[in-house]
# Entry
Amino acid sequence: MKPNFKFFYFDILSSTNDKAREFAREGKSNVIVVAGKQKKGRGRFGREWVSSSGGSYMTIVLKDKDLDKIRYLTFIAAVAVARTIKKISDIDAKVKWPNDVLIGHKKTCGILTETISGNENYALVGIGLNVNQKEFPNPIMRNSTSLKIESNKKYNIKKISKLIIEEFNNLYLYYNDGNYGKIKEAWKKYSHTLGKTVKAKTMSGDYIGNAVDLDDNCNLVLKLSNGNIKKIVEGDIFIV
Ligand code: BTN
# Structure
């Protein structure tokens, strides 16, 4: 069954993920926290997520059984964003492993999925989409874009957030049923990463190889030039 989400709108928040954490600690789930701006938007590895007005910033709060498949939630969110972008602008956005949505080679959306574990477990799926921004501060300008920059149109952010959630829900049904193969299949259709030669920068070093597949834990499978297989669990991917 599709969750019946309740939206909570704020003009400004420190981070929608932090507010979402408060909701979860109060035992609330199936909640969506939306902010017009964030003072301390964050991304993976504690990086800053520039969150001026004009972007869509939201976090989905979900109760989760054991949190061991939550990386699929990031994939669901990425595909939901790519589908929404296509619907509203006809732009073909792509998903980049593990948590980005790109237009061309530039990033237009990042997803930060965090967890709370205890008697009840929660997943917090934070989605930041660049919508109406005309520019970004350096140095991210070079690698970032927005729907406005790409199409020269202005979009209704509230409507976009709702469409993303609709698309999220469609794939979340598979997640609830444990049908993770369907989610991988959907992600692969939009993939910017698979089939390319990439450099993976990880904590244990850099690896260059052909991105051949995803494994069942959403790790990126690289085939190295010596023929060995290397699974990338975390890190940043660059096309070489
Ligand atoms: C990344 O690219 O590393 C992930 C960026 C995620 C940004 C979103 S914006 C909404 C939510 N709140 C945050 O503070 N971060 C996520």
About this structure: The radius of gyration is 17 Å. The pocket of biotin is lined by residues 15-17, 38, 41-44, 47, 49, 57-59, 99-100, 110-112, 126-128 (CB under 6 Å). The mean pLDDT is 97. DSSP finds five helices and twelve strands in the chain.
